[in-house]
Amino acid sequence: xxxxCKICLIRDMAEKADIYEYVKxxxxxxxxxxxxxxxxxxxxxDVCKECSSLLAGTCLKCxxxxxxxxxxxxxxxxxxxx
Length: 82
Ligand code: SF4
Prior knowledge:
Helix content is 35%, strand content 5%. It is mainly alpha-helical and 82 residues long. A two-stranded antiparallel ribbon has the order 1-2.
């Protein structure tokens, strides 16, 4: 059986470039106090990319685009992976 690519993040999907622009704008609009640092953001996304609940940029546990959920410093993973 061939395992199908589940696709990871929005930024990896060319057909969703408009949504990724929205992700970047949303992240940029957050205040410095509210925005997760670049390092924290990437750490979170690395966890999501290895998670079986990630499908096409969306977390199947909460329904969020993980690139938006991870942007807010005070947010957390719904199953406490980060
Ligand atoms: S937010 Fe948590 S449950 Fe959702 S994809 Fe990321 S690591 Fe998995």
